[in-house]
């Protein structure tokens, strides 16, 4: 280990020497244009070690000479921020909410269509709010699929699935999915049967004729998970470990995937994804029968929190208003309805959502 003092904080930093050489940013080792390494790890000697090193007088650079003759320079800020406990995490920016809290912020979630398509500042603010609260609205959008797509593509590329890119649905059974009906849909996330569920979902009600009902509702799964962790840490632990199988079957399609209801970062334990869909659950065969009681006890307690009215934001989506929400965080559902209702929407890949937030300087 190489140990040095970080002058700005006075902390003592320790670095594995092989890691340090692996992160050399000189022109021989790193392509500054492509931001890619230029060597194979096996190109480095097995016995690589620091021969000599010193920090510059201003405390900004570390200069290292290696036993194979190579020389490296490192910005101390880069080394400091590369430590596992110094990385800025997405959930540091996320603000968990219950109904009363999100209603107090409701106006901050709304953006005008004309501003979105014409202003880069507006787009940045929208993405920042989406990271923070997991849900935003674009208002005054002409109620058709073409203009909905225009608004979305101004911000993100659209994800293609077997539903298509932009999809339009009503109660016609075009797919083997409860969403293609007039029935009640409880709180859920989409694509639990995909290996990589969509990161964002977009919905726009184009029309609702000769009927009532169909109100949508949203629950902050992040807040629900934190509440479970506070009140029943044992239940929380179970739901972060037990793989829950999901499945989607229709003619020409058979998707399956298993993952926990609460997915956490394996290093830090931070919540990174919520998965919940009681409709798409497959045969539950990932747990011994003797362990089933504790799982179901945990699952039921979590559902009680999710379905608590204090956590549920219910509203009627109207033509002209697009809602975009985080499918890795926000549970959504709808009440049953009568009459004829047409919705349009799409999915956005998680990696494209995160990329946009990084490019805009919102997250690291």
From TrEMBL:
<keyword id="KW-0408">Iron</keyword>
<keyword id="KW-0479">Metal-binding</keyword>
<keyword id="KW-0560">Oxidoreductase</keyword>
<dbReference type="InterPro" id="IPR038492">
    <property type="entry name" value="GBBH-like_N_sf"/>
</dbReference>
<dbReference type="Pfam" id="PF06155">
    <property type="entry name" value="GBBH-like_N"/>
</dbReference>
<comment type="function">
    <text>Converts trimethyllysine (TML) into hydroxytrimethyllysine (HTML).</text>
</comment>
<dbReference type="InterPro" id="IPR012776">
    <property type="entry name" value="Trimethyllysine_dOase"/>
</dbReference>
<dbReference type="GO" id="GO:0050353">
    <property type="term" value="F:trimethyllysine dioxygenase activity"/>
</dbReference>
<dbReference type="Pfam" id="PF02668">
    <property type="entry name" value="TauD"/>
</dbReference>
<feature type="domain" description="TauD/TfdA-like">
    <location>
        <begin position="106"/>
        <end position="347"/>
    </location>
</feature>
<dbReference type="GO" id="GO:0005739">
    <property type="term" value="C:mitochondrion"/>
</dbReference>
<dbReference type="GO" id="GO:0005506">
    <property type="term" value="F:iron ion binding"/>
</dbReference>
<dbReference type="GO" id="GO:0045329">
    <property type="term" value="P:carnitine biosynthetic process"/>
</dbReference>
<feature type="domain" description="Gamma-butyrobetaine hydroxylase-like N-terminal">
    <location>
        <begin position="3"/>
        <end position="80"/>
    </location>
</feature>
<comment type="similarity">
    <text>Belongs to the gamma-BBH/TMLD family.</text>
</comment>
<dbReference type="InterPro" id="IPR042098">
    <property type="entry name" value="TauD-like_sf"/>
</dbReference>
<comment type="pathway">
    <text>Amine and polyamine biosynthesis; carnitine biosynthesis.</text>
</comment>
<dbReference type="InterPro" id="IPR050411">
    <property type="entry name" value="AlphaKG_dependent_hydroxylases"/>
</dbReference>
<keyword id="KW-0223">Dioxygenase</keyword>
<dbReference type="InterPro" id="IPR010376">
    <property type="entry name" value="GBBH-like_N"/>
</dbReference>
<keyword id="KW-0124">Carnitine biosynthesis</keyword>
<protein>
    <recommendedName>
        <fullName>Trimethyllysine dioxygenase, mitochondrial</fullName>
        <ecNumber>1.14.11.8</ecNumber>
    </recommendedName>
</protein>
<dbReference type="InterPro" id="IPR003819">
    <property type="entry name" value="TauD/TfdA-like"/>
</dbReference>
